[in-house]
Specification:
This protein has 14 helices and no strands. The protein is mainly α. The chain has 2 domains: 69 residues; 240 residues, MetI-like fold (Orthogonal Bundle), CATH 1.10.3720.10. It is globular and about 80 Å long.
């Protein structure tokens, strides 16, 4: 009976959802056609984007304004405390560790993922097994961050010296004659261990995007450089990178946005403990663990302010690419 009830709910949702969209389209079209000219032409775009704008305002703009408003109140959102929550965010030791870790993530994940993606894209360009290599490298993108974290948790698994190691990495370390390492508890390596997961996940993404850009370089330019005596290294630095610079910047900004929002890997692997806190995980702790909504909202606003300039830069890069294509 429960299965039938669920199927009925799904069916009704599809019917009313699709029917509602179709009905909205015909209603907007009928209303625009009823208007006198030239008003119909002026109102036509607004009639179709109005529903999207309403939904965007309801689920994005209004919550954003509310978050900014609540960031100036205390833990129960009752008393106005001014900038106290922001002062806490930039002076608290745990927050400073989170900022430091996020900076480390930004430098290593963005730098290594984009660099590896570019190197692989250039190396496998026009070889017979290119599609196989790119498929294998892109394969981790099919796994969610949580799923990848669970996989790597087994790889990083640690047991005392006298026990058999069930973690792949520690099994290799022990077989080489060294003592096992607590990859997720040793403060000297745990952040790098988490960063490696994100690099593994997104290098394939960078490779695919940059590979498309590399293939867009005119073949006669490469041939002319080879005739002039340029070697592969010179072609890479003097031709390939300058000609796909806009794509590299777009991919880099996208990676920066993803890194600034990283949460699930840290949450699954360490819970933000042992010095692995990042901004997003600290925000979740303040709101759900400590029930301090003022501080949590302030951290969310700081995260938003860090991401917005990068998003604007990304949009400008997309527009610049579109102008070049035109």
């Amino acid at each position: 009976m429960e299965v039938i009830y669920r199927i009925l709910n799904v069916t009704l949702a599809i019917l009313f959802g699709c029917g509602g969209v179709i009905g909205l389209f015909y209603l907007a079209n009928y209303g625009i056609n009823a208007l006198p000219k030239p008003w119909d032409r002026h109102f036509l775009p607004w009639a179709y984007i109005a529903p999207a704008m309403v939904i965007l305002s309801t689920y994005l703009i209004v919550p954003t304004i509310q978050t900014i408003y609540l960031s100036f109140f205390d833990e129960r959102s009752e008393n106005f405390v001014g900038l106290n929550n922001y002062i806490f965010a930039f002076t608290n030791q745990a927050m400073l560790v989170a900022f430091r870790n996020n900076l480390l993530w930004l430098i290593l994940v963005t730098g290594i993922s984009v660099s590896l993606g570019l190197i692989i894209a250039v190396l496998v360009d026009k070889v017979s097994y290119e599609s196989i290599v790119k498929s294998l490298i892109f394969l981790p993108m099919a796994i969610s961050s949580v799923g990848a974290s669970v996989i790597w948790k087994f790889i990083y698994a640690y047991k005392p010296v006298e026990d058999d190691q069930i973690g792949l990495l520690n099994a290799i370390v022990v077989n080489l004659g060294f003592e096992p390492i607590g990859w997720l508890v040793e403060r000297s390596v745990n952040n790098f261990a988490l960063i490696a997961i994100m690099i593994w996940l997104y290098t394939g993404f960078c490779t695919i995007i940059l590979s498309s850009a590399v293939k867009g370089i005119p073949e006669d330019v490469i041939e002319a450089a080879k005739i002039d005596g340029a070697n592969s290294w010179q072609i890479l630095w003097r031709i390939t990178i300058p000609m796909i610079r806009s794509t590299i910047l777009v991919v880099s900004t996208m990676m920066i946005i993803l890194v600034l929002k990283v949460f699930d890997i840290v949450f699954v692997m360490t819970g933000g403990n042992q010095g692995t806190e990042v901004i997003a995980s600290r925000m979740i702790k303040e709101i759900f663990n400590f029930r301090n909504f003022g501080r949590g909202n302030a951290i969310a606003v700081i995260l938003l302010l860090l991401i917005v300039p990068i998003m604007i830069s990304n949009i400008r890069q997309f527009r610049a690419q579109e102008k070049i294509r035109e």
